[in-house]
């Protein structure tokens, strides 16, 4: 490809809304273009090339693992979403619309329903299973805050795969195969990543792992152990039970006047008791289908923090929002003095597992200005769930070493779905005995367009992008410093032809622009290797450049083609 013919509108301007390096460089480098600034992007030739490279790696590894590519309609009938029960549950991210005949549709934010629909029509017997079908296709989610460029768009490219099995055991085998396949994909793309335990979110089911690209700019907090392999999204992280070194309080079972003392710090000082022996009670409003809501009290030890996603799952709600003082007052609760014991009628209570059998506890009295001391939670029949947000320094449940936080970009997610969709949608097969059974499913996603951002978050410097070997729009860039110098131009043309003939993905910068401007473009675009043909050609020398670290080597012009071949084959990134 000749640069002079390529549409690459590079710019010095940083877009107003861009803070992340990937967002800035993908726009400035002419890879993508924002459409009205609301999470919609056009891919320009360079961006499309990178997207295709990433897609190729994804497809290649999936095909090798025995998956089959299909392409499903992006517009999906609302009736399928009603069958699965997600039409309402999915919330405002689901874009709903009608056609001219008043038929309702949604733009697919994920395609479980569509894929199950495809399979239920064509698979009838155990003999046709297992199956793993995937597509690399557009998704639309009407995200509340689209931001960070390709990282969180509204329309984006996803690889979504779904597997169908006769048994749970076979689904687990495929799940493990997908984990290995995803590792190969992210490794080939040159990414530093970690596989972590994840929450199952709106899709539900149990057994789910996320592939986190490690980057300070990541939106997800992940909890990792350096001593063993354990890693988990904060939403799903667990820890060893935390002991308390402070002595057990010996307060009588009574009601104590605690005017204006409501924070954990103030209460701990007032009673001279470690927060471990307090019940922290958090009130939330749980949102359900058809606009139903319920006030829920989540109780945990005063030394712990509530993890809202765990809390939301514990009450099977669509979402949790903070309850206002008025809403609390309506059900008879007083902020600062709430307690799971003797909670008012109609208020649901969930206790953290660490409160099981707790004694000598202090909690609110569900009455303004009072707390109760010497309370037992041991013989309550209230619901229990893991509600705790693991803190840095908590101990790993696998090996006992301290855990720490790090940041990650969720680039992939694999779930064990079970029969959550096959049952309501009636995707059944006849087993060996002619008995009808629901198919057991797994689902596997990769944020293909998000990967472009993730690659740049991990691979850039102050000048621009540094694409990894398998993601780069071109493998080699050849620049002629002064296009008016016929010797330089001829040499460049010859090398360009040679490289093309050798099957190297090469771009030839034959533009009339000044050397400095061309160099800036090269640095911004970030092709892994370059050959710069300049004045020194007269002395038989050209420059071989490696974008990472901008290492420049003066080499013999005669040997350049061999050097290029050798370097491009050997370099791993
Ligand atoms: P997130 O927690 O980041 O919102 P998610 O868990 O909702 O993502 P999944 O339903 O697991 O996303 O979708 C599969 C993959 O699609 C994700 O792992 C992510 O890489 C990608 N993805 C999800 N939402 C977006 C988005 N708005 N823009 C770009 N990629 C996305
Ligand atoms: Mg996810």
Explain how this protein is built.
This protein is of the alpha+beta class and 573 residues long. The chain folds into 3 domains: 247 residues, Bira Bifunctional Protein, Domain 2 (BirA Bifunctional Protein, domain 2); 132 residues, YbaK/aminoacyl-tRNA synthetase-associated domain (YbaK protein, Alpha-Beta Complex); 97 residues, Anticodon-binding domain (Rossmann fold). The chain is 25% helix and 28% strand. Strands 3, 7, 8, 9, 10, 11, 12, 21 and 24 form a 9-stranded mixed beta sheet that branches. Strands 16-14-15-17-20 form a 5-stranded mixed beta sheet. Strands 28-27-29-30-31 form a 5-stranded mixed beta sheet, sandwiched between helices. Strand 25 and strand 26 form a beta hairpin. It is globular, with a radius of gyration of 29 Å. It binds adenosine-5'-triphosphate (ATP) and magnesium ion.
């Amino acid at each position: 490809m000749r640069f002079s013919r390529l549409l690459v509108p590079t710019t010095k301007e940083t877009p107003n809304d861009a803070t992340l390096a990937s967002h800035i460089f993908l726009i400035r480098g002419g890879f993508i273009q924002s459409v009205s600034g609301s999470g919609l992007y056009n891919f320009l030739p360079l961006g499309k090339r990178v997207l295709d490279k990433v897609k190729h790696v994804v497809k290649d590894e999936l095909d090798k693992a025995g998956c089959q590519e299909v392409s499903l309609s992006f517009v999906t009938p609302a009736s399928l979403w009603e069958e699965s029960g997600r039409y309402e549950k999915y919330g405002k991210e689901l874009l709903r619309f009608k056609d001219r005949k008043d038929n309702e549709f949604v733009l697919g934010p994920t395609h479980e329903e569509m894929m199950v629909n495809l399979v239920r029509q064509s698979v009838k017997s155990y003999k046709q299973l297992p199956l793993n079908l995937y597509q690399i296709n557009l998704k639309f989610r009407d995200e509340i805050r689209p931001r960070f460029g390709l990282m969180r768009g509204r329309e984006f490219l996803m690889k979504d795969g779904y597997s169908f099995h006769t048994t749970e055991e076979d689904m687990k085998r495929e799940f493990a195969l997908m984990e290995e396949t995803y590792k190969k994909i992210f490794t080939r793309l040159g990414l530093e990543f970690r596989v972590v335990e994840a929450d199952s979110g709106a899709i539900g089911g149990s057994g789910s792992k996320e592939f986190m690209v490690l980057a300070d700019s990541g939106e997800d907090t992940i909890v990792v152990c350096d001593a063993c392999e354990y890693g988990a999204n904060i939403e799903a992280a667990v820890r060893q039970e935390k002991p308390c070194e402070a002595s057990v309080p010996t307060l009588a079972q009574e009601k104590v006047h605690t005017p204006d003392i409501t924070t954990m710090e103030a209460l701990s000082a007032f009673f001279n008791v470690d927060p471990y022996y307090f019940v922290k009670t958090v009130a939330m409003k749980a949102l359900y289908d058809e606009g139903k809501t319920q006030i829920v009290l989540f109780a945990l030890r005063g030394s712990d923090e509530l993890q809202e996603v765990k809390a939301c799952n514990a009450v099977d709600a669509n979402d949790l929002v903070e309850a206002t003082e008025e809403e609390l007052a309506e059900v008879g609760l007083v902020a600062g003095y709430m307690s799971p014991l003797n909670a008012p009628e109609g208020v649901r209570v969930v206790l953290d597992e660490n409160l099981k059998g707790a004694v000598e506890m202090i909690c609110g009295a569900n009455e303004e200005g009072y707390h109760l001391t010497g309370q037992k939670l041991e013989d309550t029949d209230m619901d229990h769930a893991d509600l705790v947000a693991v803190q840095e320094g908590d101990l790993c449940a696998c090996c006992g070493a301290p855990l720490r936080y790090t940041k990650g970009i969720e680039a992939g997610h694999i779930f064990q779905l079970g029969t959550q969709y096959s049952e309501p949608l009636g995707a059944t097969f006849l087993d060996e005995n002619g008995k009808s059974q629901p198919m057991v499913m797994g689902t596997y996603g990769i944020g293909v367009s998000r990967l472009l951002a993730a690659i740049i978050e991990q691979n850039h410097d102050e000048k621009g992008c540094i694409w990894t070997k398998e993601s780069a729009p071109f493998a080699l860039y050849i620049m002629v410093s002064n296009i008016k110098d016929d010797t330089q131009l001829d040499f460049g043309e010859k090398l360009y032809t040679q490289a093309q003939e050798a099957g190297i993905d090469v771009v030839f910068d034959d533009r009339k622009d000044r050397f400095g401007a061309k160099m800036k473009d090269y640095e911004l675009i970030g092709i892994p290797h370059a050959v710069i043909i300049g004045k020194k050609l007269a002395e038989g020398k050209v420059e071989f450049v490696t974008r990472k670290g901008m290492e420049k080597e003066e080499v013999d012009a005669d040997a350049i083609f061999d050097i290029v071949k050798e370097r491009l084959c050997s370099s791993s990134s």
